[in-house]
Amino acid sequence: MRHIIEALQKLSRNLWWSWDTEAKELFKELSPLIWERVNHNPVELLHHISQDELKARLDCEFGKKLENVTKRFEAYLAEKDTWASKHAPSLTEKTVAYFSAEFGIHESVRIYSGGLGVLSGDHIKSASDLGLNLVGITLFYKEGYFRQCLNQEGWQLEDYPLQYPESLPLEKVTDSDGKDLIISVNIAQSEVFAQAWYLNVGRAKLYLLDTNIPANESHYRDICSRVYGGDQNMRINQEIVLGIGGVKLLKALGIDTAVYHMNEGHSAFLTVELLAEQLEKGLEPEEAKELVKEQCVFTTHTPVAAGHDRFSRDMIRYTFDKYLQNNGIAFDDFMKLGSEDPSNLHGLFTMTVLALNLSRSANGVSKLHGQVSREMWQHIFSAESPEQVPIGHITNGVHTSSWSSGFTEKFWRRYSDSLDTLTSTPEEASKILAKVSDEELWCLRYHLKRSLIDFIYRYLSNQLFHQHVYATYMEMDSSKSSKNPLSPDVLTIGFARRFATYKRAPLIFSDIDRLTRIVNHPTMPAQIIFAGKAHPHDDAGKHYIQQIVEHTRLPQFKGKIIFLENYNLGVAKRMISGVDVWLNNPVRPMEASGTSGQKTVLHGGLNFSIPDGWWPEAYNGENGWSIGDGEQFDNPDEQNRHDAEKLYDVLENQIIPTFYNRNVDNIPVKWLKKVREAIVTIGPVYNTHRMVKDYTLQYYLKN
Ligand SMILES: *Cc1c(COP(=O)(O)O)cnc(C)c1O
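Above: the input entities. Below: the structure tokens describing the complete assembly.
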């Protein structure tokens, strides 16, 4: 019996459980109520359950289920015959070190803010599934990213609940004597110390540096407080701990690193530490630089200028003074590595430029973004044309099992041995889909939409500014009034992501009268669910939220257009599985890739998007809808008017009529044809298994 209890503990301390349906169900079964209250955190859940209760429960059905899950878990950990063992055997020995300022692995581990983190989390999970020897490097933020709550005026408020290591599956990194392993970095004139944790993510490990220890002065302890928190000074300090500290940690751990992957420029200072290592060996600077380049690859993630970190010369001098002296690097030589114009070293130091200068390959995250990045950074390479710029692309994907609801995963397992088979090739997907009837697909859709709506009403009861909607719903429930709040019979549109202004969340409200007619159509209505956080410093984004919340209160939209607060991985999972249509309307070409739309596909959701990011590659005319053909205008108002017009046009004339076009059994056959087309064409391509294989074959393995 004791070993079974230990097995449960062990399972709770490896995030593998978070992408295994039966493992998740086990924890939930222990206490559905506590499971919700602890934000689906099994470590904390087990704190609430006594040994006596566990022991008693293991004696019935629960014990058998646990045994099955444990067997699969152990087999997963022990598996030797993996994709990497066949296609990248050298990378089952040597290590890929994957650096990212955020990782979105599960809602209970709050060390992410948005899409970049979700991508990193999905990357490390796929690396584990494929048997690649990859470690992640990031920071442990004790306050994480903020929790969003909206006041009665619909204005975003932020609070920062602490997360405690003892409530998370964090393991302390220790040295050979069993003492905490401590590394240090130079910041300004000080030595700043960091301890390290790791999280087990399947077979992979994610290391987290943490400066919140007594050895540091309090302002250095705060480096590891908040994801993207504080000012420029805080930002550069975080990036030093991540990049330079990360390399030192790998060295202290004795990890034999084959390649350093910088996921976005935040970690680019790692190149400087690698350079210092080479210089210390006595190499000439040029030679040292070449050796560093050989070891590094870089992924850039945004065409938005403000998305690239830039630091003033003064700040660089102040912060790096001692470090550069210690390592014999001349200040101007250092500035040159990060300057867009090497003939003027008085400008800004750009992290993307540093990364581009010191990596052997670089890539954008969709075909279009690759092209935009080549234009954007042409001057760095003194290239004559964008085609000559050595920036390629690998389009982002999502980790299929993490993004499939338990119900969906079980649904597909009735027809296929696993989700990985369903998403292996279009041919395989077609074969599997041929076994599924329209009635069954439609049943899946109804089930998922109903659970989203149930979730929304439970969620709204805690949400202050929407309590009127909740109250109306409860009233209706008892009076059986003819009015119709959220209903699974109604076409349901979802929009959720960070509220960066280029994503234009309020675009669909451009013409209120038209939207009123669409939402309240007597026979073909629509309902819309919104969610998303604005960065704490982004007042324009917060105004967008407020605007939408005000619209949700208009009588014609009440109960039909909803804003859910505190968007996170948990809310995302609910939304992407429940909605019929996932809306995405950024200003082209500002969305480097976007991934949220990819998450809806296996649930039978369809994408409706500006042809930006991944969508122009994936859209084939039959597997969703495009908002316009990518027309670009210099005048933003003109752009908005044009895109809004196209949005309404496609919604009214294509999406809504297709959804409500039913056969004699009330099944939307044409709609489901599109759903099938999306599953076949999108599922097998826009997933992180394909993506990590591409990174491995194109970039990690040195050709
Ligand atoms: C997937 C996801 C994102 C990314 O959404 P995009 O539409 O690709 O920007 C952001 N936040 C959360 C919580 C997500 O799950």
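Note for the figure: Residues 114-115, 118, 497-498, 567-569, 572, 594-596 surround pyridoxal-5'-phosphate (CB under 6 Å).
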